């Protein structure tokens, strides 16, 4: 197992604690001095950089929100003069204004460094041919991975997105060993290749996929690995952080966040309180060394958890679980956070019911009551009530074990639940609080 | 007659337990001019299964499937009973003594007598036992 930067990757936890504390304290002073926005926010919350006396004191610092970036469009959160900037990236605003991210030379350097470590931890190195099929341009995916892959001495094949048949030809002819793209695009490539009579696993040199920029699931990973015969790794990062910059290591059990670059917290989105490892909540990230657009306690809106325990790769850098949803979709049932995406994952794993569902939440006495409606598949329909009740019980048991909260399940007729184009509205909350 | 001729195709329809569902099924059958000889509803929490013996099971199946219902064919048998006290006991005890389990059953009583519709775990054995005891089984043709 090789490391790109052994000094940081092999650093023991206590030393990382000290390093992170020092970087955090420096960041607090830098923001207080150079960011009018964050200065005002610190004053509002009655926090001074002098109050940061331990790593845990990060919790005293105020949050930053996506809305802050939009409200300060395009560059009012930047803390360096414009001539220091070497690049802009712009994220497409699905709602409202886009977000502009500026980069200093050091910002690009650390982003590249992060990916160099990440790609090496997967097992990629000099001699590998890495096909970058993320979009190049204002989107961060293409250029970010391009720089990271070049840094480790690999050969970059910058195909960007589109023209899938040509991508497959080049992959074959130039011997690509890894591909970086969205999971859905890889599935598309796999299908097109199959139509061309090419099996990616057998007929090309491809052995790794670095997949992200959209939600995906463990089921999809298994499917990709079984079908295409390559290993699929999760990559995480948003443009606010710089871009996609953290990946899983060869063990594929969570995305490592380099502690010298970022401080990761998971909070209860309702109360803002920090959650323990293993508990699922909203990811909050602090970029410890980012210059042009500082990011401090940024509430990213993605739902995840910090994995408990150490990674078998030996790195003392925390791992986050795959993003399981957006905070906006979260429900609180009897004090437990429930995400509709978790229900979807459970249903995808059960052949007797369809993947469509509807959640109805009500209050019975003092207790929340959650009902999940699912459609019985035609193939699973039995004339016997006992068989149907067994399906109902199985769905309820699986949901309970994943959500940690008891759920009532109602079987409904196929096709009877509403279908959605675009954003699904699957929750009916009847609680009057 | 071979035993197979006594196997009758019942249609079973999954239905949510809410107003109007039975009417929707019945209306579809009316439009297809399908006649219902006998039917029953088994209910569980939130859903039920409507079971019916009809004169045109294939037509009923096709139409209900087209309307989006979950429909299945299930094999049942129909025994003619004496329409007087003890009629049901006679049939039920005969099957019970042989160790044949009745999964569910329903009955109707008309001008031509009383009929018991049975879903059993071992239909071939049940048919043989009923016939050898001299009881009358209705053939599938009787429902067309």
Sum up the structure in keywords.
heterodimer, A: 433 residues, alpha/beta, Rossmann fold, GMP Synthetase, Chain A, domain 3, 2 domains, six-stranded mixed sheet, five-stranded mixed sheet, 12 helices, globular, B: 144 residues, alpha+beta, VC0802-like, 4 helices
**Major sheet characteristics of chain B:** 6 strands, antiparallel
Instruction: Give the CATH architecture of the largest domain in chain A.
Output: 3-Layer(aba) Sandwich
In percent, how much strand structure appears in the residues of chain A?
15-25%
Structure classification of chain A: alpha/beta
CATH class of the largest domain in chain A: Alpha Beta
Tell me the distance between the termini of chain A: 54 Å
Total number of domains of chain A: 2
What do the pLDDT scores of chain B average to? 92
Number of H- or I-type helical stretches of chain B: 4
Mean pLDDT of chain A, rounded to whole units?
93
Helix share bin of chain B: 25-40%
Count of helices of chain A?
12
Number of strands of chain A: 21
Return the domain count of chain B: 2
Task: State the CATH topology of the largest domain in chain A.
Answer: Rossmann fold
Largest interface: A-B, 17 and 21 residues
Q: Report the helical percentage of chain A.
A: 25-40%
SSE layout and pairing:
The complex is a heterodimer of chains A (433) and B (144).
Chain A: H1 6-9, H2 13-34, H3 36-44, E1 64-65, H4 66-71, E2 85-91, E3 99-104, H5 105-122, E4 129-132, H6 140-151, E5 155-157, H7 164-174, E6 178-181, H8 183-195, H9 200-203, E7 208-212, H10 218-228, E8 231-236, E9 246-247, E10 255-256, E11 262-267, E12 281-287, E13 298-304, E14 319-320, E15 325-326, E16 331-333, E17 336-338, H11 340-348, E18 353-364, E19 367-376, H12 385-403, E20 408-412, E21 427-429
Helix pairs in contact in A: 2-3, 5-6, 7-8, 11-12
Chain B: E1 8-16, H1 21-31, E2 36-43, E3 47-54, H2 57-66, E4 71-81, H3 87-98, E5 102-110, E6 113-120, H4 123-132
Antiparallel strand pairs in B: 1-3, 1-4, 2-3, 4-6, 5-6
């Amino acid at each position: 197992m090789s490391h790109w930067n052994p000094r940081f990757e092999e650093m023991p936890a206590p030393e990382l604690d000290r390093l992170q504390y020092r970087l955090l304290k420096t960041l607090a002073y830098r923001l207080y001095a150079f960011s009018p926005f964050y200065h005002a926010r610190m004053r509002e919350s009655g926090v001074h950089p002098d109050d940061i006396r331990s790593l845990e004191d990060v919790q005293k610092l105020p949050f930053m929100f996506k809305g802050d970036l939009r409200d300060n469009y395009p560059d009012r959160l930047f803390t360096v003069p414009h001539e220091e900037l070497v690049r802009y990236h712009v994220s497409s605003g699905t709602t409202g204004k886009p977000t502009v991210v500026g980069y200093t030379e050091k910002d690009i350097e650390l982003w590249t460094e992060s990916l160099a470590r990440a790609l090496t931890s997967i097992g990629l190195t000099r001699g590998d041919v890495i096909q970058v099929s993320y979009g190049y341009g204002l989107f961060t995916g293409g250029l970010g991975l391009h720089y990271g892959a070049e840094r480790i001495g690999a050969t970059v094949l910058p195909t960007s997105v589109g023209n899938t048949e040509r991508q497959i030809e080049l992959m074959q002819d130039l011997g690509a060993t890894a591909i970086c793209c969205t999971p859905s695009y890889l599935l598309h490539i796999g299908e097109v290749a199959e139509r061309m009579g090419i099996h990616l696993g057998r007929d090309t040199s491809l052995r790794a996929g670095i997949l992200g920029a959209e939600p995906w699931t463990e089921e999809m990973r298994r499917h990709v690995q079984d079908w295409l015969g390559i290993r699929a790794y999760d990559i995480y990062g948003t443009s606010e952080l710089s871009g996609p910059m953290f990946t899983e290591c060869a063990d594929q059990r969570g995305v490592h966040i380099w502690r010298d670059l970022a401080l990761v917290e998971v909070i209860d989105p309702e109360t803002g309180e920090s959650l323990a490892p293993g508990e699922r909540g909203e990811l909050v990230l602090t970029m410890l060394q980012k210059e042009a657009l500082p990011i401090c306690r940024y509430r990213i809106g993605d739902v995840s958890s910090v994995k408990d325990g150490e990674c078998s790769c030996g790195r003392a850098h925390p791992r986050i679980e795959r993003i399981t949803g957006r905070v906006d979709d979260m429900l609180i049932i009897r004090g437990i956070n429930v995400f509709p995406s978790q229900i979807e994952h459970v249903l995808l794993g059960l052949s007797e019911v369809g993947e469509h569902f509807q959640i109805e939440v009500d209050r019975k006495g003092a207790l929340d009551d959650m009902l999940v409606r699912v459609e019985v598949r035609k193939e699973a329909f039995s004339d016997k009530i006992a068989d149907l009740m067994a399906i109902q019980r199985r769905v309820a048991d699986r949901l309970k074990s994943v959500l940690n909260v008891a759920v009532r399940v109602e079987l409904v007729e196929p096709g009877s639940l509403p279908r959605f184009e675009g954003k699904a509205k699957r929750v009916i909350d009847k609680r009057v609080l | 007659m071979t035993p197979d001729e006594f196997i009758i195709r019942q249609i079973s329809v999954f239905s949510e337990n809410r107003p109007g569902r039975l009417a929707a099924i019945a209306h579809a059958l009316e439009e297809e001019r399908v006649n219902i000889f006998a039917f029953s509803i088994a209910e569980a929490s939130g859903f039920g299964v409507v079971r019916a013996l009809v004169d045109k099971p294939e037509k009923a199946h096709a139409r209900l499937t087209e309307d989006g219902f979950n429909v299945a064919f299930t094999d049942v048998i129909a025994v003619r009973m004496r329409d007087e006290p003890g009629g049901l006991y006679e049939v039920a005890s005969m099957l019970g003594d042989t160790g044949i389990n009745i999964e569910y059953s329903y009955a109707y009583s008309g001008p031509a007598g009383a009929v018991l519709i049975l879903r059993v775990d071992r239909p071939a054995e049940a048919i043989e036992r009923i016939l050898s005891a001299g009881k009358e089984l209705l053939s599938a043709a009787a429902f067309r």
